């Protein structure tokens, strides 16, 4: 067939799709099937070539499975007195984990009368300067204009806790005020010089204060370095995971579609598209933008599975993201290591005493997925999520539904202008995107173009969020429905 199939997937929601039953099924039906994995999703890794990327991806997969297996057998031990389960600290020793910043403890000294540690002044000044420069340069435009102020205040508070002596605190607060005013300005060479000078003054002030403090603040320099290093890691993490939903929509999806067109050369220049979860949201958003701008989407038809532009009327469990909608909170947690969290929680959801068994219901309905398949899905298919992406997605749970990063464009306001056929599929026991959420978008679409289907029966089988693409009945029920619908709009059928 001449049409391409795009599956835009968030967090690589159904494994490496090349190996999945869904991809094989579509290819077996004669479709030229392509899989789109948007940036940062699932097992995405940076590699110089495909072989290197695959090897790295498999390495991450094996590592996370090993962590879960180790956790099941060793890391959770029941207390004989209170029944509390405690996790092994090694749970954070794999990619995607985010540990809390910690300050190195003060070491006990045999000789409390010795002088303070000799300062490596130039190194400390450089460290401070680089950190302050990162604040004033890198965070420009991140989340909102006031984020540099929030982040710098966080660092200053950490340093202030180290300078417990009132004399040091007084001098530090004076320098803090000057630095704060500089960090709010746009970066220039003059400001860079002032920042370095103030960093030098800060180091001098701490060094001189040390001489007058009794007893000495032992290992203060080590603790300062530790604090700065931890803070710098937070900054680097923010910069590394610096994308949101609109980046997917405006950059990733168009680039992939152009590539697919160039490779498959459809006669009419149009593609068919399938999107699960956020993949479907991306397709809806693209149609909304095209309708608003009066341009063609260059799609012949689309299928969305468990997707909506507005979750306000539903009881979706994704509302748990709402507390992270506060920018200050998001900067305290610049990314959410979802993969690491699920890997840590999996043993408690799959083994006695099943403390987190409710997590399984978010993914698959009872008896709909083979246990080993469910395990691989949980351990290998989720990733670290940027705060900016979460902040934008939380708008889907507020009045008006999902909006652009500027907060002015509401995607559902223009979805009625779409002019292509749409099959919208929901799962009857989907707790992430319930049927009522899917209906919220379906009712906005032209009646003559939309087909709405809910899979699941009162007596079973039932379909949760991932069962629509990976459940044991999907091959018999969901896939044929998709193929039949798309077949109507395949130009060479």
UniProtKB/TrEMBL annotation:
- Residue ranges of every copy of the AB hydrolase-1 domain listed in the record: 247-466
Keyword Cell membrane (UniProt)? no
Its lineage opens with: Eukaryota, Viridiplantae, Streptophyta, Embryophyta, Tracheophyta
Q: Which organism is it from?
A: Citrus sinensis
Q: Which domain of life is it from?
A: Eukaryota
Q: Which named protein is this?
A: AB hydrolase-1 domain-containing protein
Biological processes per GO annotation: lipid catabolic process
**Which keywords belong to this entry?**
Lipid degradation, Lipid metabolism
């Amino acid at each position: 067939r001449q049409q391409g199939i795009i599956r835009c997937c968030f967090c690589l929601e159904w494994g490496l799709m090349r190996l999945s039953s869904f991809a094989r099924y579509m290819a077996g039906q004669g479709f030229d099937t392509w899989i789109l994995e948007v940036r940062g999703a699932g097992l995405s890794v940076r590699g110089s070539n495909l072989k290197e990327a695959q090897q790295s991806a498999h390495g991450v997969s094996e590592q996370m499975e090993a962590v879960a297996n180790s956790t099941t057998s060793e890391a959770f031990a029941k207390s004989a007195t209170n029944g509390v389960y405690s996790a092994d600290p090694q749970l954070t020793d794999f990619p995607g984990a985010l540990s809390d910043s910690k300050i190195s403890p003060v070491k006990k000294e045999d000789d409390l009368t010795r002088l303070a540690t000799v300062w490596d002044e130039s190194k400390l000044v450089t460290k401070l300067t680089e950190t302050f420069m990162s604040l004033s340069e890198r965070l420009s435009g991140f989340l909102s204009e006031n984020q540099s102020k929030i982040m710098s205040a966080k660092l200053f508070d950490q340093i202030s806790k180290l300078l417990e002596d009132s004399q040091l605190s007084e001098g530090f607060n004076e320098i803090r005020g000057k630095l704060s005013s500089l960090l709010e300005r746009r970066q220039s060479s003059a400001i860079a010089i002032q920042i370095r000078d103030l960093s030098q003054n800060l180091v001098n002030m701490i060094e001189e204060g040390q001489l007058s403090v009794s007893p000495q603040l032992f290992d203060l320099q080590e603790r300062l370095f530790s604090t700065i290093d931890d803070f710098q890691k937070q900054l680097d993490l923010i910069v590394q995971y610096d994308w949101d939903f609109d980046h997917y929509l405006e950059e990733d999806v168009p680039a992939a579609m152009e590539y697919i067109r160039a490779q498959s050369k459809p006669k009419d220049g149009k593609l068919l598209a399938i999107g699960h979860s956020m993949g479907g949201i991306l397709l809806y958003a693209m149609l909304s933008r095209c309708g608003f701008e009066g341009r063609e989407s260059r799609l012949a038809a689309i299928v969305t599975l468990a997707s909506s532009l507005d979750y306000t009327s539903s009881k979706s469990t994704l509302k748990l993201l709402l507390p992270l909608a506060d920018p200050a909170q998001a900067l305290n947690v610049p990314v959410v290591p979802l993969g690491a969290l699920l890997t840590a929680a999996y043993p408690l959801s799959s083994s006695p005493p099943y403390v987190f068994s409710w997590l399984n219901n978010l993914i698959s309905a009872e008896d709909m997925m083979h246990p080993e398949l469910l395990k691989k899905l949980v351990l290998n298919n989720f990733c670290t999520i940027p705060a900016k992406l979460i902040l934008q997605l939380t708008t889907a749970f507020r009045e008006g539904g999902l909006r652009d990063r500027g907060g002015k464009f509401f995607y559902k306001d223009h979805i009625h202008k779409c002019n292509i056929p749409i099959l919208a599929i929901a799962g009857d026991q989907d707790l992430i995107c319930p049927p009522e959420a899917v209906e919220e978008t379906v009712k906005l679409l032209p009646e003559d173009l939309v087909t709405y289907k809910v899979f699941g029966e009162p007596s079973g089988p039932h379909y949760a969020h991932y069962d629509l693409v990976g459940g044991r009945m999907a091959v018999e029920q969901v896939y044929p429905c998709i193929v039949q619908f798309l077949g109507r709009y395949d130009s060479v059928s």
